[in-house]
């Protein structure tokens, strides 16, 4: 059996190798662009509607495909664009692709899958294009009619016909929204002195959704005890002929329907009737109906008051160590300014600078852990400022959040290109 190197190419190659430019481009710059765009999208999703919302959902799936390209191939030593001929590619895939059975390579979709990712890698590594242009070109490949992805990904498939139905000028307009100038947009968001209308319900909903999304992506929200804000969907009973409460066995009174009485009759989505106090307490322990065992439908997060969401989170942060400090250098040396170096320089220029520098980056390991804690508290302070109507505090937190994200992206770039600590 031939000996194929299974190390990730970011480890196998070094900055003094010209091919390392491809690592800096794809595992570095492209992944960095995805992090920036995802961050900027956190507080915007709730404000979109219709077709635009669907296209941005498809963009998320597109980003997942790029992550899978790196995980399934490049991080397993398979450079599907770097093989010299088809025979070598076949041998590499058969030898190193994990979990496949011999008959898998005979399945028509297997090689369609390989060919799809091979072309996607080539598009994203094209250093004659800017990052935004490369991402837009990759998007067009993903949106191919009758392409591999349109047959295998439902979210993207739902957008393919819509995309091709758009006139060319509308496609161009949409691409500018999906893949805007990265640093210009990011810096603009951070430095924008305009303050939204804090009394606008849609703005408050977007900020609350962004808060929840951000904590979920950090793996924090699932650690929070949400029993005080997660409730079953309940309505007034459809009949006045009431049974006894099946939890406490006390009689239910029709006179209490629609009142604020603690034991007022309420009806679940499975049409069973209980005392409100009893069913709410039951739900904190068991998420199924005590009568029929059907899983309860719960109130959507968008209908939970933002103040209640924040209070719930504050109970969690009482046990966290707050970050001791976070300072960002002033312009033109701020973390956002530094990030522009990675985004705007060519991959080969980055490679040559990495060869020349003293690569001692151990200190950023502890800094990365500190930044994670900073992100948690900044997310909390941003929503608190919105609910308090504190416009000055809101702008300060937005600026700090952008700086912390820029620094995290810088560290991520170093780690993903093998030029920083693992």
From TrEMBL:
It comes from the Eukaryota. The keyword Calcium does not apply. PROSITE patterns: ZF_RING_2. Residues 245-293 form the RING-type domain. Pfam families: zf-RING_2 (PF13639). GO terms for biological process: proteasome-mediated ubiquitin-dependent protein catabolic process. Keywords: Metal-binding, Zinc, Zinc-finger. InterPro entries: HRD1_E3_ubiq-ligases, Znf_RING, Znf_RING/FYVE/PHD. GO terms for cellular component: Dsc E3 ubiquitin ligase complex; endomembrane system. One of its GO terms (molecular function) is ubiquitin protein ligase activity. This is RING-type domain-containing protein.
């Amino acid at each position: 059996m031939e000996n194929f190197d299974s190390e990730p190419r970011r480890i196998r190659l070094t900055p003094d190798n010209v091919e390392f430019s491809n690592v800096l481009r794809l595992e570095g710059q492209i992944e960095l662009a995805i992090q920036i765009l995802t961050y900027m999208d956190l507080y915007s999703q709730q404000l979109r509607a219709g077709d635009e919302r669907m296209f941005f959902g498809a963009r998320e799936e597109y980003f997942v495909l790029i992550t899978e390209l790196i995980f399934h191939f490049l991080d397993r030593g398979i450079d599907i664009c770097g093989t010299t001929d088809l025979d070598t590619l076949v041998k590499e895939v058969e030898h190193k692709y994990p979990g496949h059975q011999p008959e898998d390579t005979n399945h028509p979709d297997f090689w369609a899958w390989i060919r799809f990712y091979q072309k996607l890698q080539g598009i994203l590594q094209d250093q004659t294009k800017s990052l935004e242009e490369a991402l837009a070109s990759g998007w067009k490949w993903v949106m191919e009619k009758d392409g591999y992805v349109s047959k295998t990904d439902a979210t993207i498939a739902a957008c393919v016909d819509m995309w091709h139905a758009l006139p060319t000028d509308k496609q161009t307009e949409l691409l500018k929204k999906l893949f805007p100038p990265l640093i210009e947009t990011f810096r603009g968001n951070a430095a924008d002195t305009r303050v939204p209308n804090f009394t606008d319900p849609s703005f408050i909903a977007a900020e609350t959704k962004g808060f929840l999304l951000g904590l979920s992506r950090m793996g924090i929200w699932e650690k929070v005890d949400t029993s005080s804000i997660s409730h079953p969907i309940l309505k007034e009973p459809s009949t006045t002929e009431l049974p006894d409460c099946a939890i406490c066995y006390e009689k239910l009174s029709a006179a209490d329907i629609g009142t604020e009485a603690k034991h007022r009759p309420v009806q679940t989505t499975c049409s069973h009737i209980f005392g409100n106090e009893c069913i709410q307490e039951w739900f904190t322990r068991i998420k199924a109906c005590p009568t029929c065992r059907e899983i309860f439908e719960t109130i959507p997060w968008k209908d939970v008051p933002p103040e209640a969401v924040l209070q719930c989170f504050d109970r969690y942060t009482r046990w966290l160590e707050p970050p001791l400090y976070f300072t960002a250098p002033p312009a033109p040396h701020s973390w956002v300014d530094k990030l522009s170096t990675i985004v705007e320089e060519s991959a080969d220029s980055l490679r040559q600078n990495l060869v020349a520098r003293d690569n001692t980056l151990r200190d950023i390991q502890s800094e990365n852990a500190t930044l994670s804690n900073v992100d948690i508290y900044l997310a909390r302070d941003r929503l608190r400022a919105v609910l308090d109507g504190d416009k000055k505090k809101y702008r300060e937190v937005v600026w700090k959040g952008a700086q912390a994200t820029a620094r995290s992206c810088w560290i991520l770039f170093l780690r993903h290109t093998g030029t920083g600590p693992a």
